[in-house]
């Protein structure tokens, strides 16, 4: 993210992605900057400096580049043969090309970035099959101690998970969700511990639809009520050049806010 709320102290992360980086160079770019967010409460911004620092710590402890350390410590032991860390070195095998939405109906190639600029927080590549192996290893394997696993799984909105501490009214059981997006890609994983059931979606289109679709797919698999997909065709001439005022409902986070669309 661009972190506009950090004023001018933190270099724009988009600029950092234009050249090769290492965990050390990412930490150096942030060293000495004043903290941001609310010291007495929860920060409302998203930033990944903690992951960059963790990647650097892993390099210091192992004596290996972060990508090699992750391969040795995580991917190989878990049998994730189609996964790795993109640190700008060549990757063997076929790789998906990322796209972004272009207008209402079109797609366009996502901008090329140096994935080495997000070490520890978004530079991993994988497949659905490997993601399942990782999930099972994290939940049931020997990588974590029981105390670490407990801390990871029972911390609300932490460690990359959004954990439903209460039962889902629709499913009648707890749900764990992890999602994310990057230039050209988006992903979501919804896991039901009681059933050891996961729905994993990895897409090479950067969009917001996954969190809307996956809960319905999980409900279908569990035989629970779900909202079917309802598509109402819109004429291209209207959808391609919308204009006018759109008023959100009273339940929107900014009640009855007005969005003005101009062409």
List keywords for this structure.
single chain, 263 residues, four-stranded antiparallel sheet, three-stranded mixed sheet, 8 helices, 11 strands, 28% helix
Describe the structure.
With 263 residues, the protein is α+β, with helices and mostly antiparallel strands. Helices cover 28% and strands 17% of the residues. It has a four-stranded antiparallel sheet, sandwiched between helices. The chain has a three-stranded mixed sheet with strand order 3-2-9, with no helix packed on it. The longest helix is centred in the N-terminal third of the chain and has 14 residues, at 49-62. The two termini are 27 Å apart. Mean pLDDT is 81; it is low at 1-9.
The rough form would be described as globular
Q: Please summarize the sheet with the most strands.
A: 4 strands, antiparallel
Reading the helices and strands in chain order gives HHHHEEEEHHEEEEEHHEE
Radius of gyration: 21 Å
Low confidence ranges: 1-9
**Mean pLDDT, rounded to whole units?**
81
Number of strand elements: 11
| Span of the ends, CA to CA | 27 Å
- Which percent range fits the helix content? 25-40%
Q: What's the tally of helices? A: 8
Amount of beta strand = 15-25%
Query: SS-based structural class?
Result: alpha+beta
Strand order of the largest sheet: 5-6-7-8
In short:
The chain has helices at residues 13-16, 23-30, 49-62, 66-75, 128-140, 146-153, 210-221, 236-240, and strands spanning 84-85, 99-102, 106-109, 124-125, 162-163, 176-182, 185-192, 197-203, 205-206, 244-247, 258-261. The model is unreliable at 1-9 (pLDDT under 50). The chain is α+β, with helices and mostly antiparallel strands.
């Amino acid at each position: 993210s661009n972190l506009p709320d950090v004023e001018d102290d933190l270099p724009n992360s988009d600029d950092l992605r234009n050249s090769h980086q290492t965990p050390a160079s990412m930490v150096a770019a942030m060293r000495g900057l004043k903290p941001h967010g609310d010291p007495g409460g929860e920060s409302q911004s998203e930033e990944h400096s903690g992951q960059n620092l963790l990647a650097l710590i892993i390099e210091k402890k192992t004596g290996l580049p972060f990508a090699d350390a992750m391969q040795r410590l995580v991917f190989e032991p878990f049998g994730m043969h189609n996964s790795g860390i993109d640190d700008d070195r060549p990757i063997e095998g076929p790789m998906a090309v990322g796209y972004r939405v272009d207008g209402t109906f079109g797609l366009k190639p996502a901008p090329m970035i140096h994935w080495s600029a997000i070490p520890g927080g978004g530079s991993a590549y994988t497949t659905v099959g490997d993601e399942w192996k990782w999930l099972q290893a994290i939940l049931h394997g020997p990588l974590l101690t029981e105390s670490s696993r407990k801390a990871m799984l029972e911390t609300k909105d932490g460690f990359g998970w959004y954990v439903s501490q209460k039962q889902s009214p629709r499913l009648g059981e707890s749900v764990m969700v992890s999602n994310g997006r990057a230039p050209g890609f988006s992903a979501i994983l919804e896991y039901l511990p009681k059933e050891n059931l996961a729905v994993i979606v990895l897409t090479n289109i950067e969009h917001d639809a996954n969190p809307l679709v996956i809960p319905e797919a999980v409900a279908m698999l569990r035989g629970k009520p779900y909202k079917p997909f309802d598509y109402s065709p819109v004429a291209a001439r209207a959808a391609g050049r919308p204009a006018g005022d759109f008023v959100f409902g009273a339940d929107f986070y900014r009640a009855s806010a007005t969005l003005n669309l101009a062409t």
